[in-house]
Amino acid sequence: MNIAIPAGKNWFGHPRGLTVLFLTEMWEMFSFYGMRAILVYYMTKHLVMDQGYASLVYGTYAAFAYFTPVAGGWVADRWLGKRNAVIIGGSTMALGHFLMTFEPAFFAALVLIALGNGLFLPSLASQIEGLYRDGDERSKTAYNIYYVGINLGGFMAPLVCGTLGEVYGWHYGFAAAGVGMLVSLVIYLGGARYLPAEPRRGVLPASARRPVDRAVRERFALLITIAAIVVVFRGAYEQNGNTLPLWIDTGVDRQLGDAWTIPMTWFQSINSLAVFAFTPLLVAYWVRKAKRGTETPLLRRMAFGAAIVAASFIVLGVLAAWHDSHGLRVSWVWVFAWFVVFTIGELHILPVGLALFGRLAPEGFRATSIATWFFAGFFGNLLAGGLGTLWSRMGHGGFFVLMGCFAGASALLLRALGTRVGDLDRHRDPAYKVVGAR
């Protein structure tokens, strides 16, 4: 079934709907990362949880925030429709964020945020591909632009929610996250006319649904394989919100001058700041390569990114081990540099992977395909939570090196898979059998 693509002028060289999705996701990520920036600190400092238990709670919550999109994407594709799913999911998440301001509702609030996220996340991102016609090369870079929106929200969140939490009380930070979610919903509703149309009830007629044939099963088999490898990567990557903040609090010299100490939550904004700085450069570089016909296949690009993240963790481990052995704290300058390198690697794998899943999605299964990508975050965060329990049992340097090994293993697996299946991003025909393709 063909969905009408909104007509009209472009904004910034892309369909106007991309700007709507960009801003909607930016404020949703403001709420998500705002809560995340203070979650571990809230549990260990305010609720006085044991570090290992707090890491498990964090990992489990983050895992289910990625698991629920699997069911949410199916519900959006087959029942609610993407627009209704975004509205219902966003409203549920806003309620959960405001409930975080009440201590007795802590676990219930986490459940609501995870459930709402399940409807919101795949339903919003899966509308990107519908803004472009087949063969429109702009769709490749659209996900990188969308990823900037994610990180713009991520940049503001620690500065606003983190500062409110550290200075005035953690509950003020959670309330600010709730306000951000409401702003996201207002933007989405206000810009709905620029988004792809869909059936009124959000359900494709049975006659228009694509059957789950062999080609679809093979396509999803490949997507699941990629997602499984990304799980290994996320086991290391997700430490940036789990154990890394704990290390920044105790193992990093945050003194700036003689009279001011950098708030610990602010360091989580460096990642997003680096996204702003490097995304335009990387996109311009990839576009030039595509025009010359020398574009790097997406799976190889992902493998390169995982290798960069692996190297960054290993270097961080060496720094942490050396400073611990001398009874010193690592300078905040090293942490800033680490985040920059870490982010360059991230930009090669996470937005690229999202683009790959969007482009390989069989017609009629786009939200489900995007949900499969986010499903990797479920097991990845469970793995990260389990690995986080080792933080208090082993040296910090050794822990970071171990994370480097996990990221390195994912790089090797992605490279091997890329060699086997070839240049997938050149094939968008849903009937194309990618498994075993060269």
Please write the CATH class name. Answer: Mainly Alpha
CATH fold description: Growth Hormone, Chain: A
Broad structural category: mainly alpha
Biggest beta-sheet profile:
2 strands, antiparallel
H and E order: EEHHHHHHHHEEEHHEHHH
Outline the low-pLDDT stretches: 1-7, 201-208, 427-438
* Counted beta strands: 6
Strands in their spatial order, largest beta sheet: 1-2
What separation lies between the terminal Cα atoms? Answer: 30 Å
Helical content (DSSP H or I, runs of 4+): over 70%
CATH architecture: Up-down Bundle
> Strand content of the residues, in percent?
under 5%
Describe this structure in words.
- It comes from Luteibacter jiangsuensis.
- This is Peptide MFS transporter.
- The relative contact order is 0.16.
- This protein has a single domain (14-200, 212-426), classed as Up-down Bundle (Growth Hormone, Chain: A), CATH 1.20.1250.20.
- The strands form three sheets. Strands 1-2 form a two-stranded antiparallel ribbon. The chain has a two-stranded parallel sheet with strand order 3-6. A two-stranded antiparallel ribbon has the order 4-5.
- The longest helix has 31 residues, at 16-46.
- The chain is built from 13 helices and six strands.
- The chain has helices at 16-46, 51-80, 82-99, 106-125, 138-168, 170-190, 214-237, 243-251, 268-292, 298-325, 332-360, 366-388, 396-421; strands at residues 10-11, 14-15, 252-253, 255-256, 260-261, 330-331.
- A hairpin with a 2-residue loop joins strand 1 and strand 2 (14-15).
- The chain is mainly alpha-helical and 438 residues long.
- Helix content is 72%, strand content 3%.
